[in-house]
Amino acid sequence: MKITILVDNHLSDTVPGMSSEHGLSIYIEDKSARYLLDTGASDLWAHNARLLGLQVKDIDTLILSHGHADHTGGLPIFLSQNRKASVIASEKIIKYQYFSHRHPTIVNLSPPQGTINTYLSRFHFIHDDYRLNDHIKLVFTKQKVHPVPEGNRFLSVDKGTGEGPYLADDEIALAIEKDGALTIVSSCSHGGMLNIIQSCVVSTGVSKVNAFIGGLHLIDLEPEKRDDVKAISDFLKQNYPDINLYIGHCTGKTAYHELKKALGDHVHKLYCGMRLTI
Q1: What does the alpha-carbon distance between residue 227 and residue 204 come to, in Å, rounded to a whole number?
Q2: CATH code assigned to 2-277
Q3: What is the mean pLDDT of the chain?
Q4: Residues 211 and 3: beta-carbon distance below 8 Å
Q5: CB neighbours (10 Å) of residue 52?
Q6: Which end of the chain is more exposed for a tag (fewer CB within 10 A), N or C?
Q7: ∠ at Cα 240 (199, 209), nearest 5°?
Q8: Dmax over Cα atoms in the chain, in whole Å?
Q9: What is the pLDDT of residue 12?
Q10: What is the Cα–Cα distance from 212 to 136, expressed in whole angstroms?
Q11: pTM for this prediction
């Protein structure tokens, strides 16, 4: 199986012509199908896909990890250029309006609802873990033993009755099974990386985790309010000593460097154009 990062916040030093943005889009190809996880914040994912020789029209399924605009903003161009793919998403993305309060001006993070309504027949909305094929399962975060990222406190949703906290109950991770181990792909990890890992382990029954790919939402805050990255790395070393982290997008610089310091060569930075084989 091949995994290609089409959009991330970081550019590659070795892949020319790519562009980056605050968003994430990941192309996944196996022997039987081609998948796209998220569409970044704009049509940039499609531009980068063309540079890498990937055909948008050949994608069989689009999976939306959650409703935020930096993951759904490129949806209009996907649906206009690809006429066959179904779109899998949480049923909540058409029920919620999403907002960020991190900056003085409130930012609406909602997906393009007009586009969703126009192409509604192509959407398959789910509310529970879903078997995509015999080796990929879509998993909601049900295990909630560990803290969620501190940055979630800036996020809210309106379900039609006024704003309330964002609980990441729409967030989907991919649990990819191969040779008795998991590769987990989680675009933003609002539910907390450790909770997501344990949710995927419980859902699939596979206890070994080889890799975790995506963003961690461990954003840079003032020191006294930052996430306890040491507790995260200590838990990984004790419970998943062989795990490799391929992290970017909403992972702050401080968290990345702390994880890199603690876990060494097990931590890798995502970038546009990165290709992984599992």
Answers
A1: 28
A2: 3.60.15.10
A3: 97
A4: no
A5: 16
A6: N
A7: 55
A8: 49
A9: 85
A10: 14
A11: 0.97
